[in-house]
């Protein structure tokens, strides 16, 4: 496989490990970028970007990063906290009065950001097109009753997170949440990152497809079993209501919408650049960065049915849990995206890591491909 890009010779083993991914005939396209102390030490890509395997992956290929987007959203919210426009521990209903319905008056922005609010899913099935109707989704969530009492654990909100936090951004900024994220994070750092993609960018977006045959790990199999057997379970609803959530990534209307839980588009370089910006203090003051990366929720996740550990809108490392470690230091923080893409920072080594892939793996938290690359990177240091 022809590997394009740049690497410092000290990281040749990492470049070789990246190339070895393509020994799997199912692998299609991928990119990896590593920055240390803000300097790029490796930025490589390979494979194909289109559905038919005819179009090479280029330096400027971007793709849907799924939940990697969530940390960008959380950082935007924390910037507004720093400016006094939002408060972490004020009730959400202070900014969004309708949200107090159905006993939710005590839920705060902090609860939303660390998945303790009890709103990972909607009970009443919605039509597929509701996915693209912002007012319909936010008003349905405002009326929804929490799935568990406040203070009784956490459950990851795969997509409702985007409407919940995004609506607060929209209300205090007076613009689409994606516009806030791009203006506050992507533009100042010069990142090729978008939440709400312009049509003229579509021709450089990689087509995403699922790998065949892989069963994933025990956590993935547990999740699949519930989703196949109980259509009304909270977990099933979280991923399939509206029913278009899991099947829309390549659609134009998905690319265009501003869904800041799951439809950020960027590349490995934009993930690494974002985490470099967090490490060097360009995005958040120290106190707010501490809030972002401090443990807020840990234990059995009511949605994902596996052990998760969250800061505010970021997933914290669990070194002793095979499917929940990034593969470097125990202080690492970041976010995986569905199917394999991953961005994280390891503050102990001043490392920012971005890996993206368009062949989705069947894993719930960390993808073994990204973990293996991170471990090789650690050996190179």
From TrEMBL:
<dbReference type="Pfam" id="PF00144">
    <property type="entry name" value="Beta-lactamase"/>
</dbReference>
<keyword id="KW-0378">Hydrolase</keyword>
<dbReference type="InterPro" id="IPR001466">
    <property type="entry name" value="Beta-lactam-related"/>
</dbReference>
<dbReference type="InterPro" id="IPR012338">
    <property type="entry name" value="Beta-lactam/transpept-like"/>
</dbReference>
<protein>
    <submittedName>
        <fullName>Serine hydrolase</fullName>
    </submittedName>
</protein>
<feature type="domain" description="Beta-lactamase-related">
    <location>
        <begin position="18"/>
        <end position="371"/>
    </location>
</feature>
<dbReference type="GO" id="GO:0016787">
    <property type="term" value="F:hydrolase activity"/>
</dbReference>
<dbReference type="InterPro" id="IPR052907">
    <property type="entry name" value="Beta-lactamase/esterase"/>
</dbReference>
């Amino acid at each position: 496989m022809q590997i394009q890009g740049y690497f410092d010779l000290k990281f040749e083993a990492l470049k070789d490990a990246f190339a070895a991914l393509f020994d799997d005939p199912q692998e299609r396209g991928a990119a990896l970028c590593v920055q240390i102390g803000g300097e790029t030490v490796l930025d490589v890509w390979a494979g194909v970007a289109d559905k038919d395997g005819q179009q090479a992956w280029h330096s400027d290929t971007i793709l849907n990063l799924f939940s990697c987007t969530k940390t960008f959203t959380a950082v935007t919210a924390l910037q507004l906290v720093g400016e006094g426009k939002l408060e972490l521990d004020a009730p959400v209903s202070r900014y969004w009065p309708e949200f107090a319905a159905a006993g939710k008056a005590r839920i705060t922005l902090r609860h939303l950001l660390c998945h303790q609010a009890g709103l990972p899913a909607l009970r009443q099935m919605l039509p597929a097109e509701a996915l693209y109707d912002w007012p319909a989704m936010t008003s349905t969530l405002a009326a929804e009753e929490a799935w568990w009492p406040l203070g009784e654990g956490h459950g990851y909100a795969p997509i409702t997170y985007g409407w919940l936090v995004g609506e607060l951004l929209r209300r205090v900024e007076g613009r689409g949440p994606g516009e806030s994220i791009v203006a506050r994070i992507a533009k100042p750092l010069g990142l090729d990152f978008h939440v709400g993609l312009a049509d003229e960018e579509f021709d450089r977006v990689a087509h995403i497809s699922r790998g065949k045959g892989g069963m994933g790990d025990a956590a993935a199999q547990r999740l699949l079993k519930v989703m196949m057997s109980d259509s009304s379970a909270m977990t099933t609803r979280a991923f399939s209501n509206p029913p278009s959530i899991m099947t829309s990534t390549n659609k134009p209307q998905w690319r265009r919408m501003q869904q800041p839980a799951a439809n950020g588009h960027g590349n490995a370089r934009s993930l690494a650049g974002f985490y470099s910006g967090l490490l060097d203090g360009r995005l958040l003051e120290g106190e707010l960065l501490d809030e972002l990366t401090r443990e807020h929720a840990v234990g059995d996740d009511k949605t994902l049915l596996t052990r998760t550990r969250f800061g505010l809108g970021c997933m914290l490392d669990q070194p002793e849990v095979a499917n929940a470690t990034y593969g470097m230091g125990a202080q690492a923080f970041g976010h995986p995206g569905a199917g394999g893409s991953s961005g994280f920072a390891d503050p102990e080594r001043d490392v920012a890591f971005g890996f993206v892939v368009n062949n989705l793996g069947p894993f719930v938290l960390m993808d073994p491909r990204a973990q293996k690359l991170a471990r090789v990177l650690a050996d190179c240091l």
